[in-house]
Specification:
By secondary structure, the chain is an alpha+beta fold. The chain is 31% helix and 23% strand. The chain contains 18 helices and 32 strands. The strands form seven sheets. It has a nine-stranded antiparallel β-sheet. Strand 16 and strand 17 form a beta hairpin. Helix 1 packs across helix 3. The longest helix is centred in the first third of the chain and has 46 residues. The radius of gyration is 36 Å and the shape is elongated. About 17% of the residues have low confidence.
Amino acid sequence: MMMGVVGRLWSMSLQAGILILVILAIRFLLKKYPKVYMYFLWILAGIRLLCPVFVETPFSLQPEPAYLGEMWREDFLGSERDPQPEIQFAGNNGLQNLGTGNTDSKGFSGDPDNGMMGGSNTSPLFTDKVPDLGNIENEGLADHTVLNIEGIMKSLHIKYDLSKILGILSVVYLAGIVIFVCIYLIQYIMMKRKISTAVRGKDNVWFSEKVDSAFVLGIVRPKIIMPYGLKKQEGYHILHHEKTHIKHHDPFIRLVGTLCICLHWWNPLVWLAVSKMNQDMEMFCDEAVLRNASAEEKKSYANTLLSFAERRSGLSVGLAFGESHTERRVRNLMKKRKGGILITCMVTVLTVFCIIAFMTIPGIDARGADSDIPEAGNSGNDSFLNHNPETDNLGSSGDSTGENKGSGSSIGAASGIINGLTDEDIEYLMSICPKIPEFATEQDKDEDFWRMFLFNFYTSDFDRETVELYVRQLDHKVPYVKAGYDEVNHTVEQIFGKPLSAYVEDPQDLAEDSSIIYEEGYFYISTSDSPDFIYEFVSDTDIDILKTVELLEGLNGDEEYTARVYLYLLPADNERGYYIDGKGRMAVMRDMAEGMIEGQSFDVEMNPYGRVTFAAYAPYTSSNPYEDVVFKMIKDGQMIRSFGGNSIRQDKELWEFQNVEAVAFPDLNGDGYTDVVTIVNYKFGENTISEARIYTGREERYFLEEEILEEAYNNSHDRKTISDIKEFAASPEYQDYFVRTSIYGRWRVTEHIPSDGIYALSPEEIESFENIQLVYGRYWYKQGLEDNLTVENYKKELLTAQEFEESFRVNMGEMGFLTDSLILYELEGVTDSASLFGQFFYQIDKDNALIFYEGVFFRAVRE
């Protein structure tokens, strides 16, 4: 709620800033005319600064505050979504193959027994392996997914960092409000004490010996405070002036200005506006006092102003007679100004214009939508109607039965809104939900998205026409569902607002291996049974023309729902009156106590998390006997981080979890952040195997598994202990095993660097090496998808930049590198190493390297 209040105040301040700039421009144009005109324009600015309601009109020139988070808008307008996770992936195939060159082993396949089309569609989505808020870095959406952990976590924590920064700014902002309110209250109390000895004169006039100038104090019962010893003419001018202030309700206006400064203290335009308003207020009051005065009376009044300006008190919380820009007020009095009907009409028009254009926000039309029906699919990243990113964890779902049909009687498409959903609408959405991959924007609807949609929608629709086609790769016939291109076009248009042809020019581009075939106007989708999903309708929420539908999702036969699914609907002129503009999901969190291993849960101080509960969770071996232990960090009853799970190394896929032997929390790499070391026992056949797992804590609040350090330790120690691990990691010869400190890890070749040397490679061969992935392990080396090659040793040599340049007759600066030294790693003991790409590896820094092969330098970057 605090963020909502702060966000709305920021929005009000930014929008009022535009209005203030307009008023300042008008003020400059009307500087020769009476200040009464400006007085009322400043009142509009005050209303905009203090009124939290945004009225929508199609004529508004204000930018809509879409911006500061849709949640801030919801807090005030009353349309709320349930709290959503803060993690989003900008893709539509889950976490499949992020940061790798591999293809998910459960990816598109022509094998009819392979089940779902992509790895992210398999059952791990609906077990405890569903990624939750803290469990992204080491748990994939599929068993064989290989992640670029560090890259993913950096992108994930952008949102976390932004939220943290906004939270800090909100606290600072609210603290500023409190400080300024206290300052003005203190000033008011000091002034009350200063005039506590004032003597009452006639009516509401009080005289005090402790003030040098007259002013008005109070709002409900305003008092005119006057100094002693005034001349008769001075007293007359002052009294008339202050009574005019009261008549104009200026004390209240002044209070409004003070409140505006307190609430918008960070906005310099607000300070400027209040200052100019006070000037115009005083000049307006002067003009009202001297409306029918002679030149001599004006001169006398001006002398009084100058006199009191010289002896003005420094402390004032009211309306002091000589308070504001005396010289300017005097010049204003000496010039004869006329309003006239023409100026009055012009100012009236300007006032009406400001009210319509700058006191409102854009309505539906002004935001670019059609007055009746928004353009299908026109929901790009710049609109607040693009769903809350915190709900859109992009992955994939499976299939179910159901057709795209219905009357859509509940929809008011002609009015540009979606009315209440009928039972028929809800049933339709629940049937179509598993067929639609997750997506947030139009950019997410790429070819992979449409392949997945076709597979989800048609693969298990056995009521359709099926044909058997011979697949050369499999050397046998495979059953396929047959769907006409025109029919698919129509179906896509009904669901997504635009036909498939609007997204994919050539349907042949969607053909993939033997899973989807396109021939002569027909798609052929390989058949497969799909998981039987069940849904429960939770709620639907409206935000302007956007309707959010929340569903609970589970597998038929399971006792509990496993995910919350959110469908975002926009009105359209189709059979149902709406199209689906986005889909997101989040896992339904399990009970924190469920599965926790007794004796392996600790309350511990962990930097940068503070005091947390660190708990080990036994795997759900009833569904998969080879699932692995998961470690979670819990704070205030909520999980804040999770890691562990199945090892990504295939030779350990059949290790069956036995127990957690030990857990420790040292700082192995000396960076000040708490690391985690575990020793876990597994059963493999008849043998019991003990494995150490090492996770280093990072400043960005995540953990990175030190695979190379683990590998070196586990291969050299049969009996593992925590003390051995600490001693091993502290040894200088093993410091290079930590991630990002040496050659060890994953690298990707990005390009070759042209030089004047002689190439032993053809242009085609050079191109074939670009964009391949190289992985250097402690005892092995891997190139692309090839099997590991045994490495007996990495010969390591430190070279200066000058030595390197002299050896190869190159210039490091021209190659794009500024460094004083490089480290040469040469692989030794590799089979056929003489012709091995990647054998000669020159590391420039932790993330950049050069690979020399057959006379050509290739640039490599760490993944």
